[in-house]
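Work Package 4 report. The design task specified in the project plan requires that, given a folded chain encoded as structure tokens, an amino acid be chosen for each position. We show below one input record used in the internal validation round.
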């Protein structure tokens, strides 16, 4: 294990993939059918697949396994967020396109919010109770921080905000989120596959 935090400037495969997504997200958003950016559309389905792959990497981690279980639970949280805890899967407004009932319009919809909040609180409680925050330094020091993955995550967030608030283009926003998730899961893969100091 490295004594001090180090940085890795290599372009890993996931970083290269995220670069491609980042470069193409605006032109693709401009030329692809708007349906690609809809809820449960093609781009969001790819996002879900990338996040599911991240969960797999976490659950098969070669080190700090309890820590990566929490990371997997956070990724599941992101997956639930993408489908709004199932609201965009099961509560579409009849006769509309890409419109959904709000939780307050759904009988007992408040239960979903309570369960989601309870899930987040439970993950945090487990993280604190098991004192897994003490493993963060060890996880970060076991390999160099993948600089390009971090930069591309920031670019993905910025492009997502730009696509949503400036361009008002859902497809650009969804592609930007995809780039963020690819860079994130790529970084998780780097750390989860490191063999040294496995618990």
């Amino acid at each position: 294990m490295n004594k001090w935090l180090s940085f890795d400037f290599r372009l890993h495969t996931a970083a290269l993939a995220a670069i491609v997504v980042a470069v193409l997200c605006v032109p693709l958003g401009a030329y692809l059918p708007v349906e690609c950016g809809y809820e449960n559309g093609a781009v969001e389905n790819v996002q879900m697949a990338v996040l599911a792959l991240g969960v797999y990497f976490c659950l098969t981690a070669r080190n700090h396994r309890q820590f990566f279980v929490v990371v997997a639970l956070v990724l599941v949280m992101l997956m639930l967020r993408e489908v709004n805890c199932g609201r965009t899967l099961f509560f579409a407004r009849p006769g509309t396109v890409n419109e959904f009932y709000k939780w307050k319009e759904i009988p007992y919809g408040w239960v979903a919010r309570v369960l989601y909040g309870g899930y987040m609180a439970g993950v945090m409680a487990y993280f604190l109770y098991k004192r897994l925050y003490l493993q963060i330094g060890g996880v970060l020091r076991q390999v160099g921080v993948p600089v390009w993955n971090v930069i591309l995550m920031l670019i993905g967030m910025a492009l997502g905000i730009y696509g949503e608030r400036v361009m008002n283009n859902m497809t650009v926003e969804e592609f930007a989120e995809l780039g963020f998730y690819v860079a994130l899961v790529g970084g998780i893969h780097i750390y989860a596959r490191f063999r040294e100091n496995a618990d």
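Helices lie at 13-31, 42-59, 65-82, 87-90, 109-129, 136-142, 147-166, 170-192. Validation will be extended to a larger panel in the next phase.
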